[in-house]
From TrEMBL:
It holds the Pfam family MTS. InterPro entries: DNA_methylase_N6_adenine_CS (IPR002052), RM_Methyltransferase (IPR001091), RsmC/RlmG (IPR046977), SAM-dependent_MTases_sf (IPR029063), Small_mtfrase_dom (IPR007848). Keywords: Cytoplasm, Methyltransferase, rRNA processing, Transferase. It comes from Deinococcus antarcticus. GO terms for molecular function: methyltransferase activity. GO terms for biological process: methylation. Residues 203-369 form the Methyltransferase small domain. This is Methyltransferase. The keyword Transferase applies.
Length: 374
C-alpha cells in the first residue's frame, strides 16, 4: 500500500528522547520523515552537549532542528524544496543553495560555527563537494561539526575534511552514526568535483555531483525512452516530473515538444538546465516540491520515473504525490507514462487518473501508460 495522508501538511517531527526540549518540523520529502534524520539527531545532541551558541551556519538544515538549540541563531541553507517549505513554515529565512554556491552576499561575515550532514548516499563526488563547501564557508579558527553514516563513507570523508581543515576528530557515535569536530586552519579550499557527462540518444547529458544517474542513464529511464521511441511529441506540451539530469525532458524537446522540467532537488534543477543548454534546446526548469510550482498548467503528456527513496528510507508518500500531481496537471485526453520498479503498487492509484495499460515489463521494471478520458 502507498502511505496515506496529505503530502503538503507540515507537522512536528518525531524526535528521539535524547532530544527532549528541541523541536523540528517535517513533511513527506524531507530526509528522515516522519522523524528527523538520524545523523542530524546525533549532530544536535552533540552540539547541545558542547553548549554551542551564537550564529550557526547549517548547510543541511532539513527541518530546522538546530534552530531549537538554546542560544543558537540559525543560518539555514537547503537545496530540497520540501525542506525549504518546512523551514519557511518554521519562520526561518532559509537560503536555497547547493554545494559551491556563494553565501557571502547573504551573510558577509562568516559564522564561526558551521554544521553539515554528509549525504554519502548521494555518492563520493557529492560528499566531497559538501566538504569543500563547508571549508569555504568556515573562517580560519572556526569550527565545523560534520555528521554522517559510517556505512556511507563517513570516515573517508572526515579524513578528506581533516586534510583541508588541519585538525579534528570523531567526537560522538551512536550505532552507525558519527559526528566529527574540526577546527579550520588557514589554507586553500579543496576544488569542487566536476560534473560528469555522457552521450545518450544523440544528447549530451550533464550530471552534477549527487544527481540521480549522473554518470549514465539508469535502466528504468533507458527502458522508458526505448519504449516511447515512436511517440509523436511535436508541438505537444510535455512535463518531465522529477527531471534529475534532464535526460527525459531533453529527449522530448529534441522531438519538438514544449517542455517543462521540475525537480525538488536544486542540484538536479541545475543539472537539467545545463543539459538543455549543452544541447541548445529550449525548456523551462522549475525547482518544485513535486508539482507545487506548476500552478494551473496542463500538459498533453507527462513522463516520470517517480523516486521512492528520500535519503536512506523508502518513502512512498512522494511517489503517491507524483501520481496525484500528474492527475492535477494532465489535460483531458492527455497521456501519462510512468516507469517504476516491478513490485511498486502504482496501478491502483494510477487508475484514478485514467485507463492503465502495461506497455512492457523487463529487467525488474515496468512501463505503464495512463490515458485520461476526454
Amino acid at each position: 500500500m502507498l502511505e496515506s495522508g496529505n503530502y503538503s501538511d507540515v507537522r512536528p517531527a518525531l524526535l528521539p528522547q535524547r532530544l527532549e526540549g528541541l523541536r523540528a518540523l517535517t513533511k513527506p520529502g524531507v530526509r528522515g520523515f516522519p522523524e528527523v534524520d538520524a545523523a542530524q539527531a546525533l549532530l544536535a545532541a552533540t552540539m547541545r552537549k558542547d553548549r554551542v551558541k551564537g550564529e550557526v551556519l547549517d548547510l543541511t538544515a532539513m527541518g530546522g532542528l538546530l534552530a531549537s538549540l538554546p542560544g543558537v541563531t540559525l543560518r539555514a541553507v537547503e537545496g530540497s524544496a520540501p525542506a525549504l517549505a518546512v523551514l519557511r513554515e518554521a519562520g526561518l529565512d532559509a537560503v536555497a543553495a547547493v554545494p559551491g554556491d556563494p553565501l557571502l552576499e547573504r551573510w558577509p561575515e562568516r559564522a564561526k560555527t558551521v554544521a553539515l550532514v554528509l549525504a554519502g548516499d548521494r555518492g563520493n563526488a557529492y560528499a566531497l563537494s559538501q566538504v569543500a563547501w563547508a571549508h569555504a564557508n568556515t573562517p580560519p579558527g572556526g569550527t565545523l561539526y560534520v555528521a554522517g553514516d559510517r556505512d556511507k563513507g563517513f570516515d573517508r570523508y572526515v579524513r578528506a575534511a581533516g586534510a583541508a581543515f588541519g585538525t579534528g576528530e570523531t567526537v560522538a557515535r551512536d550505532g552507525g552514526m558519527r559526528v566529527a569536530k574540526l577546527v579550520r586552519r588557514p589554507g586553500p579550499t579543496p576544488p569542487m568535483p566536476p560534473a560528469e557527462t555522457y552521450e545518450e540518444d544523440g544528447l549530451k547529458v550533464v550530471g552534477l555531483p549527487g544527481v540521480f544517474s549522473a554518470a549514465k542513464p539508469d535502466k528504468a529511464t533507458a527502458i522508458l525512452l526505448r519504449e516511447l521511441g515512436g511517440l509523436d511529441l511535436n508541438g505537444k506540451r510535455v512535463l518531465d516530473l522529477g527531471c534529475g539530469t534532464g535526460l527525459i525532458g531533453a529527449w522530448a524537446a529534441k522531438r519538438g515538444a514544449q517542455v517543462t522540467l521540475v525537480d525538488a532537488d536544486l542540484q538536479s534543477v541545475r543539472s537539467s538546465q545545463q543539459t538543455l543548454q549543452a544541447n541548445e534546446l529550449p525548456g523551462e526548469v522549475l525547482h518544485s516540491d513535486v508539482g507545487t510550482a506548476l500552478g494551473e498548467r496542463l500538459f498533453d503528456v507527462i513522463l516520470t520515473n517517480p523516486p521512492f527513496h528520500v535519503g536512506r528510507g523508502v518513502v512512498l508518500d512522494v511517489a503517491r504525490e507524483f501520481i496525484a500531481s500528474a492527475k492535477r496537471h494532465l489535460k483531458p485526453g492527455g497521456t501519462l507514462y510512468v516507469v517504476a520498479n516491478d513490485p511498486l503498487p502504482y496501478e491502483k492509484p494510477l487508475a484514478d487518473v485514467g485507463d492503465v495499460k502495461e506497455l512492457v515489463r523487463e529487467a525488474g521494471f515496468k512501463v505503464l501508460k495512463v490515458s485520461r478520458p476526454e
